[in-house]
Write a structure and sequence with these properties.
CATH topology of the largest domain: Tetracycline Repressor, domain 2
Number of strands: 0
Strand content: under 5%
CATH class of the largest domain: Mainly Alpha
Largest sheet: none
Order of helices and strands: HHHHHHHHH
Structural class: mainly alpha
Length: 197
Amino acid sequence: MNQQSSTPAGEDTVREQVVRTADRLYYEQGILSVGMDSVRDAAGVSLKRLYSLFASKDELVVAVLRLRQQMLRQGLEAHRDLATDPRERVLSVFDFLDRWFGEPGFRGCGFINAFGELGSRSDDVASVVRETKVDFRTYVEGLVREAGGSDAVALQVVLLAEGAQTTAAITGTPSLIASSARAAAATLLDADLAATA
């Protein structure tokens, strides 16, 4: 049986506006340096309205991370769907990273950044970050299995992708990092497939 949402449609729009605004501010400036008053001002809502939507800053951060989960999944799947065979679907992870790394204002993985700032202070934030990383590993394992590869190589591909995110943010050479990680993943995958052929 379908149940109607108890949240008015306008409230959903305001909530999304606040979450997207917070996401931009947190990613650009860091979570700890952005107060709820800054989110309020940038989103154009009253502080009372903001706290009616999110009882605490941690609750807002979790909502931002949930938005990022959705964007990550959509980005990965869009690149996967462009691939022509199972091997290329595995490597599409790095095509997604290459596009993402090249976006203006790229500052690394928002989940890693959030964990670094709040992971030891907020169980909720740490939980969402861990969930996201487990989901990413599961996603890559599925692609590698479909290509005929092993879980051991899937983990290595995940580590290449995770390391590429951090390295690209720090070194400022995103395209080189993404292409190098892709080449390494291809070498690992091809050797694995040859060994099991």
